[in-house]
Write a structure and sequence with these properties.
The complex is a heterodimer of chains A (about 350) and B (about 250). Chain A is mainly α. Helix content of chain A is about 75%, strand content about 0%. The C terminus of chain A is likely disordered. By secondary structure, chain B is an alpha/beta fold. Chain B contains 8 helices and 11 strands. The radius of gyration of chain B is 19 Å and the shape is globular. The model of chain B has no long low-confidence stretch (mean pLDDT about 90).
Chain lengths: ~350, ~250
């Protein structure tokens, strides 16, 4: 497959995001025709009489925050996954591997267990997500230059530890009140989106994404391995920790508002790399946009397929796994030799 | 110019890979490091390139060193020109991407090593020789006055080996200093101004290539009977080094 050039690839994914966004605002239990959606969105600028008030309410107050949250979370996870795969020089790494997802889960689960408000839910996910990273840092401290393998193993250790604590929290939770709340939150959803949550997610996700985007070319160099990166004049250890902190911000922000949504951070960067190649100057923006497209699509399915809501974490895996499998089979040689 | 002054290194305390090693590689000259496997050749060049911090002594050099590792596929299939561009890390700002100057430097370096036509090929799909030439181009793109290469001709066929040797000769003629390791004494004889023979922690010798690469020294170093043949090429007297196989078990 020929690799598209950078502007083409970014433009195609950006247009795709606009299209699925308009469709996502249109579909649901209260369908709003596509041209009305466009009318609502542009009415601020032009004024539109053809749109009814209920339609305006549904689009602006109900679906728009949810759409924005799906874009932020999906894009953030796609970008974080791509950055981590470069950092660990392994196309099969995902944000779960550094233990931050598990840490953030514990923070959120604790807040739900103690019946604290949504501010504590978000704050807890944040604080514990970042403490997972701090723990990882302490575990690997003192090893000169913190070699990559040590960080990967440390991430597995930290992740397992926090997962065990999450299990403990669900075990002691009241099976009639807090347990269902914790379980549903952990399964992942953007159904409870509000404009406040959008802002809360936007700050860490966009901050982390900005740092990673600024370092996009240096990620190429880091992905060569510590020795080559150092011989070319880069400090690989400092670069790796910068990327880890930035991805932790993204992952903690995403988990805080939407629970644990797996697979996006693994599958999206992988598919993007098969399409545009491994150069992070183009891979990173494409991964962000494609992750956003994917999660908007999945969320639209989640709320329209059945009368109830299907958790996002369930759908991303159910759709992601077979698609990933087929693509791996079709591209076996390419992926394993030089993904 | 690259200078190692009384340098010692060991991975474990008390166990030295080498010690009291002094070496000067002036600009416009080649020094070759020879020795059996596992005696510290790679360790030495990593110390020289600044990738390992010596336990004793100091390494000094003017300007950055271009290190050329042994070619390996790598995890991601970057284009050859993108690999070479990565040599510009020192020139590109922290939050910037390479600009026009960097691309010109990269393409110029690829032309110098004769791989300009491979620009858009994916690095892992190149042959071993082509990969080695791309990695040398990457070091050149960094504008370094000194190259350190770890076994640049290992794993290459005869033609590719010759191509690497000619390229290194050309670079040295332009004023580059080169330190390399090799398993080919005859290539060291052809290329190098001086050689370093590493037989073990207490058995390191340096000197002019022509003086040190004798039958006796090489036979002792590799523990196998080594023989020098003399022949004529374009009116010059050349020497080739051959091993006499079959006696090594005695």
């Amino acid at each position: 497959m020929r690799r598209p050039n950078t502007p083409t690839a970014v433009a195609i994914t950006a247009v795709a995001l606009v299209v699925v966004s308009v469709v996502a605002l249109s579909v649901g239990r209260y369908p709003v025709p596509l041209w009305h959606v466009v009318g609502v969105v542009t009415s601020g600028a032009f004024g539109s009489d053809s749109v009814s008030d209920p339609e305006r309410t549904v689009v602006i107050l109900v679906r728009l925050p949810r759409l924005l949250l799906a874009i932020l979370v999906g894009g953030g996870l796609g970008l974080a996954g791509a950055a981590l795969q470069a950092t660990f020089r392994n196309p099969l790494v995902s944000p779960e591997i550094i233990g931050v997802s598990a840490g953030a889960s514990l923070g959120g689960a604790l807040a739900l267990l103690l019946g604290l408000g949504s501010i504590f839910l978000v704050g807890g996910a944040f604080v514990f997500g970042l403490s997972a990273l701090a723990l990882l840092f302490v575990l690997t401290l003192g090893r000169s230059g913190t070699p990559m393998l040590m960080v990967v193993l440390g991430g597995v250790v930290v992740g397992s530890f926090f997962s065990a604590l999450v299990s403990l929290v669900t075990y002691v939770a009241d099976p009639y009140t807090t347990l269902p709340a914790i379980v549903f939150w952990l399964l992942g959803s953007v159904a409870t989106a509000t404009s406040t949550k959008v802002v809360i997610a936007a700050v860490p996700i966009l901050a982390g994404a900005a740092v990673i985007m600024l370092l996009r070319w240096r990620l190429n160099v880091l992905s060569l391995g510590d020795e080559e990166a150092e011989s070319l004049g880069m400090n690989p250890s400092r670069m790796r920790w910068t990327i880890l902190v930035a991805t932790s911000l993204i992952v903690a922000g995403a988990v805080a508002v939407s629970g644990v949504i797996g697979w996006v951070g693994l599958v999206i960067p992988h598919l993007a790399r098969m399409w545009v190649g491994p150069d992070h100057r183009v891979l990173l923006p494409v991964s962000f946009l494609a992750g956003a497209v994917y999660l908007v699509l999945i969320d639209s399915l989640a709320r329209t397929m059945t009368a109830g809501e299907i958790p996002l974490g369930v759908l991303t895996a159910m759709i992601g796994a077979p698609v990933f499998f087929l693509l791996l089979r079709g591209n076996r040689d390419r992926i394993w030799d030089h993904a | 110019m690259l200078e190692l002054d009384d340098v010692g290194f060991g991975y474990e305390p008390g166990a030295w890979v080498f010690r009291h090693l002094s070496l000067t590689v002036p600009s416009g000259s080649i020094t070759a490091v020879l020795g059996p496997n596992g005696r510290g050749k790679t360790t030495l060049v990593r110390c020289a390139a600044g990738l390992l911090k010596p336990r004793e002594g100091v390494v000094t050099h003017d300007g950055p060193i271009g290190f050329v590792p042994q070619a390996r596929g790598g995890a991601f299939a970057y284009r050859a020109v993108d690999m070479v561009l990565m040599g510009r890390v020192r020139q590109v700002g922290l939050f910037a991407s390479p600009g026009r100057d960097d691309r010109v430097a990269a393409i110029d370096a690829m032309e110098r090593t004769g791989v300009g036509h491979l620009r858009d090929r994916q690095f892992p799909t190149l042959s071993g020789g082509e990969q080695q030439l791309v990695l040398i181009a990457r070091a050149l793109a960094s504008d370094c006055p000194m190259l350190v290469l770890d076994e640049p001709s290992t794993g290459l066929d005869l033609h590719n080996q010759a191509q690497i040797l000619s390229l290194l000769r050309k670079l040295v003629a332009d004023g580059m200093g080169v330190l390399l390791t090799t398993h080919h004494p005859d290539q060291a004889l052809f290329l190098a101004d001086s050689v370093l023979l590493m037989g073990g922690p207490d058995d390191v010798r340096t000197g002019p290539a022509a003086e040190l690469l004798t039958d006796a020294e090489l036979s002792r170093l590799y523990a196998i009977d080594v023989h020098t043949l003399t022949y004529e090429q374009n009116g010059n007297e050349r020497r080739a080094i051959v091993t006499r196989y079959g006696d090594e078990l005695d």
